[in-house]
């Protein structure tokens, strides 16, 4: 026969002593009253700035010249061709470096 393990005997905790039935429970301390925060003072109303008076118009210290009339364009004359600027094919082609102005020389 195989010996079976016997459970070890665990000691039970001692019983909690109960108060006698006619004893009153200890009084519960009441929390102190919460002080109310002081009332928040309303900010004073913002005063509106006084209206800005427009400055009086300054009279000119000298008389202004009269406005110039628009330029007069003569009507085109029929039968005449307008003068031409030199066209692109009359200008000799230059290399890109030849078109640049000469660089200033450094003076040592």
Description:
- This protein has about 110 residues and is low in regular secondary structure.
- The chain is elongated.
Question: What descriptors fit this protein?
Answer:
elongated; little secondary structure; 108 residues
Layout of SSEs?
Elements: no helix or strand
Largest sheet: none
Nearest-integer average pLDDT: 72
What would the principal axes of the Cα set say about the shape? Answer: elongated
Helix content, binned percent: under 10%
In what range is the share of β-strand residues?
A: under 5%
Give the CA-CA distance, first to last residue: 120 Å
Give a summary of the structure in a few sentences.
With 108 residues, the protein is low in regular secondary structure.
């Amino acid at each position: 026969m195989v010996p079976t393990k016997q459970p070890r005997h665990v000691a039970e905790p001692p019983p909690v002593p109960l108060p006698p039935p006619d004893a009153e429970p200890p009084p519960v301390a009441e929390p102190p009253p919460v002080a109310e925060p002081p009332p928040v003072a309303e900010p004073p109303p913002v005063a509106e700035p006084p209206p800005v008076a427009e400055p009086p118009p300054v009279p000119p210290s000298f008389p202004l010249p009269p406005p110039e009339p628009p330029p007069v364009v003569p009507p085109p004359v029929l039968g005449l061709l307008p003068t031409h600027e030199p066209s692109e094919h009359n200008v000799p082609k230059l290399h890109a470096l030849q078109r640049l102005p000469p660089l200033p020389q450094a003076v040592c």
